[in-house]
Amino acid sequence: MPLLASVLAACGGDEGSGRPTLNWYNFPDDSGALQKAADRCSQASGGRYSISYNKLPRAADGQRQQLVRRLAAEDDSLDILGLDVTWAAEFAEARWIREWTGTAKRQAVEGTLRVPLRTSTWKGKLYAVPYNTNTQLLWYRKDLVPTPPRTWAEMLDMAGALARQGKPHFVEIQGAQYEGLTVWFNTLINSAGGSILNATATEPSLGRPAVRAAGIMRDLARSPAADPSLPNQMEDQNRLAMESGTAAFELNYPFVYPSMKANNPELFKNFRWAPYPRVDPNRPARPTIGGIDLAVSAYSRHPDLAFEAALCLRNRENQLSAALEGGLPPTLRALYDEPAFMKEYPFSKDVLAALESASVRPITPVYQNVSIAVSHTLSPPSGIEPESSVDTIGEQIDDALRSEGVIP
Amino acid sequence: MSTRARPAATPPPPEARTEQAGPDRAELSAGARQERRLGWLLCAPAVVVMIAVTAYPIGYAVYLSLQRYDLRFPGRAEFVGLSNYGAVLSSPFWWDAFWVTLFITAVSVAIELVLGMGLALVMHRTIFWRGVVRTSVLVPYGIVTVVAAFSWQYAWTPELGYLAELLPSGEAPLTEQWPALWLIILAEVWKTTPFMALLLLAGLALVPEETLKAAMVDGATAWQRFTKVMVPLMKPAILVALLFRTLDAFRIFDNIYILTAGAQGTGSVSILGYDNLFTALNLGIGSAISVLIFICVGIIAFTFVKLFGTAAPGAEVKR
Questions:
Q1: The complex's ipTM?
Q2: Inter-chain contact B159–A380, Cβ cutoff 8 Å?
């Protein structure tokens, strides 16, 4: 046994030298910004720890599965975990992540945008620190639409008019049966003044706003504005459709901007952004936020160092480089006044405005079930019957909250 | 386990079995008894390994299926008897997935049998380039299912794929239930027909040339020779091919996972089990689904052997 232990320790890095290696598991980043942050923080620790950046699978479901499998097996080689904003409650309830307290908590909260912080909180306790955030804007073609629509009704009218003139007219949005569809529904129901769950996340609170939200989704799907592949489309297909010139509008994250610049410079000249369309003309839209929160594994052998390292990874300098190189909107409020960021992100003011009025997806340990109940019932969007679809969602969420029943 | 290991370890030749059926076992000579004991000793390690890698996980799944066990609520775990089975069997999602699975299984295996037989006959009769023909027929089977499924998915996506281009503009077949189901079946058939053909080719080798020539001399047409001579003689091979493919098809996962991920009512029982286990992290319900799939597979195998029992290798004693 001692021999085996020493062999394992040797494999685990530089335990022998007294310098622990903290394993950071996060989404795969191609820009190099995350690796740089890990290197900078290792350097800055003055030899107390080094951070090893491990890439999780590309899709969110794959990331969650890998983390869950390892945590369920009490794997102590995970230290810092990059969680999607919908997982903190689930991981906290399963006792897989540690609560943030004391100085670490104070530093995590200081200067951080309010809405992203809500995603890291479960039952009044903080379980993660927001690393980056994200939200959607309305992207449109200036040559087709001189003034952007303010509401969904206006947007559908404009698309209809463009269709009659034989011009590109699709509204690109995430209509496939997956998380993106739930995000769309969540944005609409919040924009209509409602929410999917009640404040304590104990039961569904759908009601009239949900029926309105479902109605808007159905109306789009049955109008000329709908892309024929709507029921199969995710963010990237939306981007491609917009770049290929078949669409007039696109509801998507800011990554589409550099992509359009690189892939279709001609169209890029007319590529503009505007706030997410409203449901009611006199109530601001409440787009749903995305992003990553950093948590510390309950099985980490170096929790104190892990809290410190997580704070370093999301400090001002590293968030700025993640924003400039990786295109990820920061969670520190102050960075939105940073000239370098404003230059690279011409829409930074709109992103900040959207973030400040943004909504979060239901915060509950059974979020996955809730999301599946929503996306399954609302797919395909053209088949939505607003009243009965919302009733079905309510029943399935009831089951999900009691962790009973089969999910589709 | 032992039922599987026994025939493998001491395969009685068909003639020997018919003779043995009458006399008492006590009449076995000392040498035969010793040989039998040696046989058991030799297969014991295999039995132990089989128990470790199959019986234990199956037993554990049965145990989990009797629990309320949601990974996210470790404190709420408790024994609930058969209530998970009740939840699954009374859920419309299970029955939708079950009928979809049966439909895909029945249609794809039927098509594969016909196509596979055709390919087997071609491979059997080919005189020139025999090796090349057989290899090229097997290519789809050699491609990893997930990789093939991705290429099908791209091919059927409007604006990206060459097959979608052939459809009228605005058609996105993977977004509607029936077109998507047919495309899943197409992907399955494309992928596994070669396997069927290979098994049937082995069966064709069982048909003696002399019997066929004799039938020809008697004036049998090609169709009569096929239905009256070849098919009856190939029955054991057909049974094996159908059984393997049906069991395989019933567990269909990869093609659906990539092509539609189970959306638009195209999910199979395996997809349902996967979603409940890995997405909902509900070990109780997920295990109950897995055990039900296991039972279905058992029923299929049992039915096949009963239906085609007389054709099973070694079972025919009259000829």
A1: 0.74
A2: no
Name the nearest CA neighbour of A314 among A300, A326, A302, A297.
A326
Q: Which two tokens stand for residue A100?
A: 């943030």
Instruction: Yes or no: say if A173 and A238 are a contact pair by the CB < 8 Å rule.
Output: yes
A346, A171 Cβ separation under 8 angstroms: no
CA angle A383, A389, A395 (to 5 degrees): 145
Angle, alpha carbons A111-A314-A107 (nearest 5°): 45
Q: Is the pLDDT of residue B15 over 50?
A: no
Return the structure tokens found at B198. Answer: 């290979």
Q: Buried b vs exposed e over A377-401: b needs ≥16 C-beta within 10 Å?
A: bbbbbbebebeebbebbbebbebbb
CB atoms within 10 A of CB A309: 25
The whole-angstrom distance between B188's CA and the closest CA on chain A is: 21
CB contact under 8 A, A368 and B280: yes
What is d(CA A186, CA A289) in angstroms, rounded to the nearest whole number? 10
Nearest CB among A240, A379, A407 relative to B280 is that of: A407
Largest CA distance in chain A: 78
For residue A199, what pLDDT is reported? 84
Residue at A126: amino acid letter? L
Q: Which of A68, A90, A406 is closest, CB to CB, to B276? A: A406
DSSP string for B21-61: TSS-GGG--HHHHHHHHHHHHHHHHHHHHHIIIIIHHHHHH
Structure tokens belonging to residue A372: 């599946």
Q: What 8-state DSSP symbol labels residue B10? A: S
Helix or strand or coil: residue A249? Answer: strand
Which of A196, A197, A192 has its CA nearest to residue A216? A192
Instruction: Summarize pLDDT for B268-313 with one digit per residue, the tens.
Output: 999 999 988 888 888 899 999 999 999 999 999 888 888 776 555 5
Distance to chain B for A224, nearest Cα, Å: 11
Q: Determine contact: B94 vs chain A, CB below 8 A.
A: yes
- Tell me whether residues A94 and B72 touch, CB distance under 8 A: yes
CA atoms within 13 A of residue A48's CA, in its CB half-sphere: 10
Q: Are B159 and A240 within 8 A, CB to CB?
A: yes
Contact across the interface for B267 and A408, Cβ inside 8 Å: yes
How many Å apart are CA B118 and CA B112, to the nearest integer? 10
Spatial distance between the Cα atoms of B294 and B290, rounded to a whole number of angstroms: 6
